[in-house]
Amino acid sequence: MSQGKDATLHQRILGDIEGRIVSGEWPPGYRIPFESDLTRQYDCSRMTVNKVMTQLAKAGLIERRRKSGSFVTQPQAQSAVLEIHDIKTEVQSLNLAYSFAVIRRVQRKAKAEDIRRLDVEPGSSVLEVICVHHAAGRPFCLEERLISLATVPEAGNADFSDIAPGAWLINQIPWSTAEHRIHAVSAGTGEAAALDIARNTACLIVERRTWSNVGPVTHVRFTYPGDRHALVARFTPASV
Question: pTM for the full model?
Answer without folding.
Answer: 0.66
